[in-house]
Design brief:
By secondary structure, the chain is mainly α. It contains 15 helices and four strands.
């Protein structure tokens, strides 16, 4: 078994507190009350990228931009989905991704804002009403719903009925069609014009649902939810996490959305590190996970670390520069190896 002690020691350096905190918690498995964990958590909240995100928060808990309100109107802006990567809900995704504690008053305020402004009673899930040429329709984007369920559960809002209803919406309506499907025009699907629920299931809708499953309370696991979990896992494994089901040597999604591209932070897309990690969190064992881990290991640079390959644009902060070695990406690989039981015997840590 390879020794990653030097890599983990690099991640524990104090120049990147969010990496140090998460490495202590999720790689070295230190308990929350450990003095070093407490100190690292405090530094994380006072340092980028977390501090730069929270510096943009409004007193009501949201991240509403005046310029966007003027351009699109308050009702559209308050939902917090647009503009992408600067609106309210994206900050929840990024902060949850960084592992910020839900008990922080600013995070609590953010969660309450999203519950009040991003949940649609008409939909029964996180979403909004959008005016189109053919009239108004309820927007229900599966990756968005999954992201909100996962983030809010990580912040401690899993007992809220709106979070549970959103998870139940996905359990009931998420599809797992591998192409060749004639989309229904009955609610909640809108035929071939439906960008998220069309003739082929959106992979990110499935993987973000998978991510949500790793965070929900035990009470969410109804018979319907367990059946959805089986379908969700089956769909991901049908594609061996990252490959086409019909042409096994081709990537699942070509181009900029290729899941083999290592990302920081995650937004609506996942990468193979996250997908494999979530499968392991759900207790899945499959050769595709081992294959994926070997693929990730093959991407080490000459110093045994991992580079950031893609980062979202238009954020309030940066998580690193594409093409350069990156502590957050490297931490996520170490966490994946820990979940897989491949980090036993770290020396001197």
């Amino acid at each position: 078994m390879a020794d990653y002690s030097d890599v983990v020691q690099w991640l524990l350096e104090e120049d990147t507190p969010h990496v140090r905190y998460n490495t202590l918690r999720h790689v070295l498995q230190r308990p929350p009350e450990d003095p070093e964990v407490i100190e690292a958590r405090r530094h994380m909240m006072e340092s980028p990228p977390v501090s730069k995100i929270l510096a943009k928060q409004k007193p009501d808990g949201g991240f509403l931009q005046d310029s966007f309100v003027k351009r699109r109107g308050y009702e559209s802006a308050r939902v917090g989905y647009s503009p992408k990567h600067r609106a309210t809900t994206w900050q929840a995704v990024f902060l949850a991704h960084a592992g910020v504690p839900g008990e922080d008053p600013r995070v609590q305020s953010l969660g309450k804002y999203i519950l009040e402004n991003s949940f649609s009673e008409g939909l029964g899930a996180f979403g909004w009403t959008e005016e189109q040429k053919t009239g108004s329709r309820l927007e229900r984007i599966p990756c968005f719903i999954g992201n909100m369920v996962q983030a809010l559960c990580s912040f401690g809002f899993g007992d809220d009925h709106r979070v549970r209803r959103s998870f139940e919406f996905l359990a009931r309506h998420q599809r797992f069609d591998d192409g060749g499907y004639k989309p229904e025009k009955e609610w909640p699907h809108f035929g071939r014009t439906d960008r998220c629920w069309g003739g082929h299931t959106c992979y990110w809708g499935v993987t973000r649902f998978l991510g949500a499953m790793t965070m929900v309370p035990d009470s969410y696991w109804t018979k319907e939810a367990l059946e959805a979990k089986e379908k969700c896992v089956g769909f991901v494994l049908l594609h061996r996490i990252m490959w086409s089901s019909r042409r096994p040597s081709r990537p699942m999604i070509p181009g900029r959305n290729d899941p083999r591209i290592l990302r920081a932070p995650l937004s609506y897309q996942d990468d193979v590190i996250e997908i494999a990690s979530n499968l392991l969190r759900l207790g899945v064992e499959n050769p595709a996970i081992d294959e994926t881990i070997e693929y990730v290991l093959s991407k080490r640079n000459e110093r045994g670390r991992w580079n950031l390959e893609v980062t979202p644009n238009n954020m309030y902060t940066t998580w690193g520069s594409p093409g350069e070695e990156n502590k957050w990406v490297t931490f996520r690989v170490m966490r994946l190896l820990a979940l897989a039981g491949r980090l036993d015997g770290l020396k001197g840590l």
